[in-house]
Amino acid sequence: MSGGVGPTAGGGITLPSSGAPMPPLHPTPTSPTARPHHHYYLFSIKQLNTLGAAAVLAFSTTVPLSEIAFAVLLLPYLLVLATLAFPQRPGKPDPSAPVFSEGLGDRVRHAVHTAAGFAVGAALPALYILDGLRSGDTTGVAAAAPHAFLLSAQVFTEGIAAAFPGKFSLPCRAAVAVMYSARRMFSASEWLRQEMEGRDELGRAPPVAPRRLVAGKALAAANMVFWGIDLFGFLLPFYLPKVLRKYYLGGSDREDDRSRAREQQQKQLQEQKRGEEGKKDS
């Protein structure tokens, strides 16, 4: 959710100088479209909240072991990527720097994307799970829990990567969003399949309220559509190639704009010279 901290020499957490203002206490973890933060504290309140939510769901026996294993094994895999495939060396781009330009339109799109992702992926599923616990709809809770677990684990993992900018490079942090989004597509499809089976026919007590049947189907379908567009419409075709290009070739959107402007100026000068030469010949 579907960019950080400033670079440090030793990969640790930077401390503000005595004359600098204090950074925000609880900055938001990075995401593909997030604006950068220059400081990030490991195990902040947001980190502890997401870790607690993931732990509660994991120990509630509603999350399959395969999803828990995926979240646990992803951390050492990121260390392997950061060590062998995409190390953060001097001269590589700052992982906290924005991948795309930060114009007004980009900030508006980022705000809309963040609000929609939070509502569809976190807030509404959390209310659905809490209402299911209150009403005794254990089947609906078990269907939605894997998706909520993966989203909480993603936020926690993104926070770890953001807290160590000297260790986790830009492609490593992009891999977190891509891999979790791909995994959530499977959990959302399974959630939608279970909701479509019709829990009124299972003979469970107490009976499931019709509003929960409609809400479960709508939430599962909405998450399938939203994260599918985020993965196949943004992360894979635009965000990941841009990240790899910045990592291997360097540069930024502003530099690209400047190079295009220089090329246009050179073309205009060449056309003016040709026009002047044509006038002299005539």
UniProtKB/TrEMBL annotation:
Ranges for domain DUF7733: 44-248
Keyword Transmembrane (UniProt): yes
InterPro entries reported in the protein's UniProt record: DUF7733
Region feature Disordered, mapped onto this chain: 1-33, 252-282
Entry protein name: DUF7733 domain-containing protein
Residue ranges with Gly residues bias: 1-13
Gene this protein is translated from: ga07753
Organism: Eleusine coracana subsp. coracana
Keyword Cell inner membrane: no
